[in-house]
Amino acid sequence: MGKMRRKGLASMAVQTVASATTVDLGPASGLSCRECGEVFALGPIFACELCFGPLEVAYDLPTGDPEALRKQIEAGPANIWRYAPLLPVPADVAEKPNLNPGWTKLVQADNLARELGVAPGKLFVKDDSGNPTHSFKDRVVAQAIEAARAFGFTTLSCSSTGNLAGAVGAAAARAGFRSCVFIPHDLEQGKVVMAGVYGGDLVAIEGNYDDVNRFCSELIGDPLGEGWGFVNVNLRPYYGEGSKTLAYEICEQLGWVIPDQLVIPIASGSQLTKIDKGLQELIKLGLVEDKPYKIFGAQAEGCSPVSAAFKAGHDVVRPQKPNTIAKSLAIGNPADGPYVLDIARRTGGAVEDVNDELVVEAIKLLAQTEGIFAETAGGVTVGVTKKLVEAGLIDPNLTTVVLNTGDGLKTLDAVADTSQATVTIRPSLDAFRDAGLAH
Amino acid sequence: MGKMRRKGLASMAVQTVASATTVDLGPASGLSCRECGEVFALGPIFACELCFGPLEVAYDLPTGDPEALRKQIEAGPANIWRYAPLLPVPADVAEKPNLNPGWTKLVQADNLARELGVAPGKLFVKDDSGNPTHSFKDRVVAQAIEAARAFGFTTLSCSSTGNLAGAVGAAAARAGFRSCVFIPHDLEQGKVVMAGVYGGDLVAIEGNYDDVNRFCSELIGDPLGEGWGFVNVNLRPYYGEGSKTLAYEICEQLGWVIPDQLVIPIASGSQLTKIDKGLQELIKLGLVEDKPYKIFGAQAEGCSPVSAAFKAGHDVVRPQKPNTIAKSLAIGNPADGPYVLDIARRTGGAVEDVNDELVVEAIKLLAQTEGIFAETAGGVTVGVTKKLVEAGLIDPNLTTVVLNTGDGLKTLDAVADTSQATVTIRPSLDAFRDAGLAH
Predict the structure, then answer these.
(1) Does domain A106-134+243-416 have CATH number 1.10.10.10?
(2) Chain A residues with beta carbon closer than 8 angstroms to that of B202
(3) What residue ranges of chain A have pLDDT lower than 70?
């Protein structure tokens, strides 16, 4: 996964373009195996035929004047398609029906900085709750949609426990796809409604999330699932690239500068690895200055396989059985775990975890300082940031960007007990005076 | 409320600037009574001393080259502060801590258009669920915050049944105000949590929303409430101006063109009247061409006092006792009702209502065609649009903009019964085949 090897792959990938001439995914030139480097033509495949390693998109990225490219991006739409020249999408992507996520707020969080002991002007929250279905999943699904279009799929599918189901349902509806989403049968009512309102088929599976995933894997290999685009399986290489847009936006919003430190949540680990990939691309393209940056991964203690491996100095990740309120991060066997470990170590970062109590505290701290109501995953990143500043691993005088990847409205239960009315009174001034809330 | 009279007021207002020299609210020159035209200095007042009519902000708007102003706006931030020269805020407003709402998506809704029988490219949804706390209330609260700052208040307050409580709590937290929000004691749990998580005081009043409002009116007149900024009472003239930004954004997003037809929900009616005010300002400033437009008001049948008055040809609005799932629009005695009637009639529009069943259908129609999950208020506007197209009152060949002012996540109950899993099955291919969902 070193820089040298990736560069090698990119140039190899260019040679395979000819075999994929019917598929127009813009600068995407092929799929390369992250393990053995083998290159394949663009298609709905996700594992290397030779070594079963994960495939990722290789590019024939624009060369030439970085200033011209920067101007082109800045003149683009206020969504991820401003970066179309760097994504596996056709050049006219912005004209097709899509939810057009992205270009979410990068909030300068001076109040939170004060609480965490970070210098003023140095702490930022990238708030992806501003996306159409209020999570970063809209970014990745938007890419999967374009790949599905290119490959001629008409049904979009996924397994999900929440955010992804809503993102797929919504995007499929607008883009004109049928959707069929698989969920565990005991999902919370609110999440079922959020997934069901978009009108696609919603299949509840008698079993837990692992059972749902196993079933989906069977379905992909069966004629029953033929011609279906599973956004997080056979479209995964394209899907994953959506996370690069977080890196692009953060740098552009900072004035085309890479932040010194980034705190990123880890579920499968894909988001973190793609953000690193995005930063490397910006450097390669000359859009930002090459400079050191540290990437920190954040997990919940109740599902901390990568954090455990990092602390133990291991290269492999030992699966855990998740038990945490941060359900959107509760992947016990994260596919990209080893890559995350490599990036955290290579950049001088770390992987840390926080317990559920601190997750709740951190959600409230963010809400009460910046008015941002984050999902549990946002509580994890803010909580981990607090811990890393206290431990001296995050430098409070350097620029830090913390990701909030989802919306608190989706995980209300986490803070319900502790976010109640201060007092209940009769509608009288005397009762209000007695409550002691006037100043 | 005619154009002539408003122009007269604006020039009168300029003369009062001297008495408000200590208050810098940018182009705001004073407060004028919408009934008798009397002008007052800028301050935390909301009713005319002479006739008790409502006060609204008068401006000393920029004169000169419209092209220069348009360029200045286009170069501004991607939020409401791009319009700072047209709002009652200081010129450096974008540098102060605020939630910076606005610049939400204007979605070209071709799928919905097809379902409603509107020509392709002619129907748009202005989707305010993309605001920081996912409703248009962020726009109005952002204005109130700046007025509160100018008047030296340190506590922000309001009465609310949901959206406003969250918007005030969040904005106060970030902007450094204490907040004290009053809610009915029997509010749904989810809404209490959304209001409580931002850490301000949340006072539950034993009574219904009317009791809460009455209590707040008492509090404002009592020393206990002295120095408090009630966003929707003593800061109301400023607060209301936030809705003008919807007009500005819609026109700019259409390429500085006024849409032919707008469908706007009616609660108090303030939003509709301020959108009309905003459109008139754009014309006066030369930022858009002067052309006819029709404004349509949308209510739920269970709370349709303005619609009833419109249909009966009355100038006054007879209060109703609300009974509808569209709770954010459930104001039985809308303060701006008469002004709404005037605008709908003057522009050649109409006021229409839909029953709760159609509200639910319309929420699902919007979700299933465009991937936008709207609050019940959005179901009201989409449902009313459907009805008005069918009745021939909305021309399907002209441009129509429909407002969605809030997020479906906040009114999940409305669609819960009808947004369930299609089927529940064992995790087996046979079971899936039997379900008949494969193609």
Answers:
(1) no
(2) 420-422
(3) 1-21, 439
